[in-house]
Amino acid sequence: MKIGEDENDKIVSMLNASANEITITANRLSIASDYFTLTKNGNVTATGGTIGGFTLSGTSLTANGVGLSTGEYAFWAGADNAANALFRVKNNNVIGAFFPTSTFVEVGGEYLFIGATDSDKTTPKGWYFNNSFFGYQTKGGTARIAECISEENAVPQFKFNSNIANSSDRNLKNSIAYLAENGGEKADYIFDSLMPATFKFDGEIGSKTHYGFIAQDIKAIIENAGLSLTDFAAYTEWEITKDGKPYQTCGLFYSEFIALCVDQIQKLKKRVETLEKEKQP
Question: Which fold has domain 178-279?
Fold first, then answer.
């Protein structure tokens, strides 16, 4: 043990030894200084330092991943370096995680990304969601497939920038029955009872006039036809939050009306052809 004075004439002490290892054994060990404290209960307090690959300061825990820019990742788990870690936290408040199914999920302040990664595992490829649109992200950017065009707290409306294909494979269906071969009396009733209407959506940008149906009207028509809501899948219900309270709302799958209208048009065409033949001399 050496006791001396520093350049400011303050008393300092140093523990000096020529051995490669110094061992201190005690039931309780306490160390107190302006920048480091070790209590007898084993609690450590320090203003900063380095543990393994992590750098600690008074406000953050940061580390540099192998092959990544300095300080890009603040924390990771599941590997010795951030490049291969299953869980990552960036310094810009972005959280990312890999799953055993090779799916990568990243959550930022205003977006959610779900997908895989390319070969260098730094540029994700997959589906991208934020508060105004969703699309598919590649190295070149994000292709916006759909964008929300309604105002906040209004009925959600989306503008799609690509075509939508509905699955229609015969091998994926059962209980197939053609309207023309099965009477279609209930289909006739539904078609004849439809009440086309014009309307505007609350809060819609531009206050446009729409042509369509009212979901509650369609529900009543289905029930009056003696059908259940599962017998004609045009009507659907779900719960939303309105004015801070649960609210049961409803909507329509307009594509379900296509086959119904085609059936009616075909019947009208045949009727017209029959009448024209009867008029011929």
Answer: Arc Repressor Mutant, subunit A (1.10.10)
